[in-house]
Amino acid sequence: xxxxxxxxATALPGTLEANTIYLIAPPGKPNYTExxxxxxxxxxxxxxxxxxxxxxMITGAIASANELTVLADITARDALTPTKTMYxxxxxxxxxxxxxxxxxxxxxxxxxxxxxxxxxAENLDVVVTWSSLxxxxxxxxxxxxxAVAKAHTHSNKTQLDKxxxxxxxxxxxxxxxxxxxxxxxxx
Length: 187
Fold this sequence. Notes:
Layout: E1 5-9, E2 20-24, E3 34-38, E4 45-47, H1 51-65, E5 68-73, H2 74-78, E6 87-92, E7 104-109, E8 114-120, H3 141-150, H4 157-160, E9 163-165, E10 171-173
Parallel strand pairs: 1-2, 5-6
Antiparallel strand pairs: 2-3, 3-4, 6-7, 7-8, 9-10
C-alpha cells in the first residue's frame, strides 16, 4: 500500500517525490492554491487547472465565437457542416431566393440546424407599417388614398387658370370682367 504525502510550498520543488500531493500558494496570488499530484513515479505528475488555464479557455471560447467566415456564394455556405453557432458572410448571396443582389450575412442555428439570414448588403427584408413611420403626415393613409383617388386633370386647365376675381369680389376672366354677350342695350 502506497503512502500519500502532502507538501505545502510557494513553488513546486525541482525534485518531486512519488505519491505526493503538492499544494502550491504562488507568490502574488495569496488567495489561490494550485494542486499537483504525482503517481508511483515522481515523473508522472498531474495538476488541477488553475486561474490562468480558465482564463485561457474563456479567451479561446470568446475568440472562436466572434469568427466571421467569408465565402464566395451560397453553394460554399451550404457545403459547410457546422457543429457550433457560426457567422458567415456570403459575397454573392443571390443563390438565396430572398436576396436580389449582393451579399448577405448568415448565422448557423445549431438547435434548428438551419442558416438564418441576419443582414443583406443590398437591404433587409423589412416590413414598414404606417404607424411606424417617423415624420409621417397627420392624415391617415386612407384619407391620403381617398384624396389621390379624387385627383383629376382638365384638358382646359389653361382656360380654368384664367378664372379669378377682382378687388371688389367680381368674377374675372383673364383679369377683366367677363363680357355679358350683349353689345347693344338700346331698348
